[in-house]
Amino acid sequence: MTPLPSPQQLRYLVGLADHGHFGRAARACAVTQSTLSAGIIALERQLDAAILERGPAKRPVFTPLGLQLVERARQALAALAAVAETAAAARDPLSGPLRLGVIPTIGPFLLPRLMPALREAFPRLQLWLREDMTDRLADDLAAGRLDLLLLALPAALPEAETLRVAEDPFIAALPQGHRLAGEPSVPVAALASERMLLLEDGH
């Protein structure tokens, strides 16, 4: 049976992939460059697999197998982190890291009011924020890189549990004299033939 890689070896592997440079990856992992390089070589020998291409390139170049192993390493590290976070959450709910993704059309308006209330109510909560488009946030949630999303529904989140926390009505801004300008409300169907200025998909 092939010996299992250690979490430290997996961190070296992911760090090298993320930073694309042995020195920067070593600093991110809080080790010397020689220690990180030796760790990658030891991992290759342990798995009997070529992770990096050997050649004149100054930047590390991953083999196709190496790229697959990087993604597996990410998943394994996320699973290990989840074990520790689950135990911590059982001791003190809403403490420790919470990785929140939010779309740009919500973040600037909601977060300035939400953040102070969260800090006061849950002082041990470590909130990490990422602002991005819906599709990329959904990918990060599915991959375990985010824990929670604030976005507009409906959204393609087949394996996630969703909860409606607020409703934000759409408002039609019409020029003076428009045939619908005097109406108290405008049905969506009435706008079907109109030229409209809208946000891009993903907001």
UniProtKB/TrEMBL annotation:
By its UniProt entry, which Gene3D superfamilies does this protein fall under?
A: Periplasmic binding protein-like II, Winged helix-like DNA-binding domain superfamily/Winged helix DNA-binding domain
Q: Which family does it belong to?
A: Belongs to the LysR transcriptional regulatory family.
RNA-binding recorded as keyword: no
Name recorded for this polypeptide = LysR family transcriptional regulator
What taxonomic lineage is listed for the species of origin? Bacteria, Pseudomonadati, Pseudomonadota, Alphaproteobacteria, Acetobacterales
Q: Which InterPro entries match?
A: LysR_HTH_N, LysR_subst-bd, WH-like_DNA-bd_sf, WH_DNA-bd_sf
Pfam families, per the entry: HTH_1, LysR_substrate
Residue ranges of domain HTH lysR-type in the record? 5-63
What are the entry keywords? Activator, DNA-binding, Transcription, Transcription regulation
GO cellular component terms given for this protein: protein-DNA complex
Q: Molecular function (GO) terms listed?
A: DNA binding; DNA-binding transcription factor activity
Native organism is Teichococcus deserti
